[in-house]
Every structure is written in structure tokens, then in C-alpha cells.
Amino acid sequence: MKQSITPASGSNTIRKTCAFLVIGLLAAHVQADEAALYGPSAPKGSAFVRLYNAGNQEVSASVGNTQLSDVGPLGSSDFSFLPGGDYSAKLGTQSLTVKLNADQYYTLVNLPGSPPKLVEEPPFKNKQKALLRVQNLTDSELTLKTADGKTLVVDKVKALGRGEREINPLNVKLALFSGTEKVADLKPVSLARGEAVCLYVTGSAGKFSPVWVKRPAATQ
Q1: Same domain flag for 65 and 114
Q2: Is residue 23 domain-shared with residue 97, that is, in the same domain?
Q3: Which CATH number do you get for residue 67?
Q4: Would 3 be classed as within a structural domain?
Q5: Is 2 within the bounds of a domain?
Q6: What is the pTM of this model?
Q7: Alpha carbons 80 and 43: distance in angstroms, whole number
Q8: Which of 52, 58, 87, 161 is most buried, by the most CB atoms less than 10 A from its CB?
Q9: pLDDT range class, residue 35, cuts 50, 70, 90
Q10: CA-based angle 178:180:181, to the nearest 5?
Q11: Are residues 116 and 64 in the same domain?
């Protein structure tokens, strides 16, 4: 004898099904948001690398078999992942041997008139704040302050060094200083909780080129 479903039990079944669908969609949305903030999903033990082009012409690079293609002037690719290990990185006619550690992030920098440089980007895991990081690839010590010079943000980043600070997301005008001298006002940058935004500074005294480098916006 076939079991019949009463209207009430049928409604309950439909409601439960809809609830599971909603929960599944919400979980997928959360995963998408996390991927947008913290990087692409990858197998355990992967290393992550991107290309920042500090030059004035479009460039492409490869790290092992991973292609970082068609990055415009002062632009950046997204992070790509590959197993941790030793690789040959090639950018135009130049190449270098790089060691990528598992679960670490790196930026391959195209430097005009100089060999490319691999820069480490320590992972940022605080989902409640944003991170401002200064990657100083110049020959001068530099400091990040508010544009009026009154508030230190990242103090005394040594030449070829890195400095950083966790902050609450906010809108404030920033500038780059060498000692007490302002050397560059910076373009506005948007910050999101859990996101690391890097200021790459290339060039030399009198000709600094500071550029905000962050992951490209996720495409729909």
C-alpha cells in the first residue's frame, strides 16, 4: 500500500528543502568572500606567487610552468599557486632561481633597468583588521605617515626592507616621507577587513615611484 503525503507533511518537506538550499547558498557566498580576501583555494603545501610590473611596458613572466601573463605598467597579476619548491623564474630575457616555501606568498617584481626581484609577502590572517605593508625596494629609508605628517603609520622602513601595520579600515590621506621631507602624496586606497594592501616603492632618492598593489577585484 502506497504511503500518501498529507498537505501539511508536504509543506514541511518543501520548507526543509528550501532551508537546506538557502544554507548551501550562504555557505558558498561566504567561501567566495573568503577567496576574494585571502587568496585562491589551493592544495595543502602550495606556495603562492604573483607578478608586479614596476615598468612602463606590459610584461609577462613564468615561474616553473605557471604563467603570469600580460601585466600592464604599474599593475599586478593575481596570486597563482604551485607546489612549494625550487623553480626557475623567467621575465623577458632575464631569469633567476627562486625557492618558494609551502604556505607562503611571494611577489615577483619587474624592476626597470635591474634584474627582477622575488619579494616575500607574509600571510595576513587577522580577519578583523586590514594590513598596510610597505615594500621598500629603494636605496633610502622611508616612512609612511598621514598626509599632514602628524601621524606615523609605518615608521622607518629600511632600504630594501619591509614594514607593516594592522589598522582598522578607514579613509585617510597618506604620504611617503624621507626623514621629515614629504616625497610623495599617495593615491587613495580602499581597505577591507582581512585584506593586506602593499605599497611598493621603487626608484631612488628624488625619483621614488610608490604604487599600491592589491589583489584584483574578483570577477563575477
Answers
A1: yes
A2: no
A3: 2.60.40
A4: no
A5: no
A6: 0.79
A7: 12
A8: 52
A9: very low
A10: 60
A11: yes
Residue 207: all three cell numbers together: 625619483
Cell of 10: 508536504
* CA–CA separation, 205 and 185 (whole Å): 15
End residue of a domain, out of 98, 123, 148? 123
Rounded distance between C-alpha atoms, residue 158 and residue 163, angstroms: 8
Least confident range of 2-16, 83-97, 133-147 = 2-16
Between the alpha carbon of residue 99 and those of residues 29, 42, 61, 89, the distances in Å are 34, 18, 16, 10
How many separate domains does the chain show? 3
Does 134 have pLDDT greater than 80?
yes
Q: Are both 101 and 171 inside the same structural domain?
A: no
For residue 134 the three cell numbers come to 610597505
> What secondary structure, in 3-state letters, does the chain show?
CCCCCCHHHHHHHHHHHHHHHHHHHHHHHHHHHHHHHHCCCCCCCEEEEEEEECCCCCEEEEECCEEEEEECCCCECCCEEEECEEEEEEECCEEEEEEECCCCEEEEEECCCCCCEEEEECCCCCCCCEEEEEEECCCCCEEEEECCCCCEEEEEECCCEEEEEEECCCCCCEEEEECCEEEEECCCCCCCCCCEEEEEEECCCCCCEEEEECCCCCCC
Buried b (16+ CB within 10 A) or exposed e, 60-81: bbbbbeeebeebeebbbbebbb
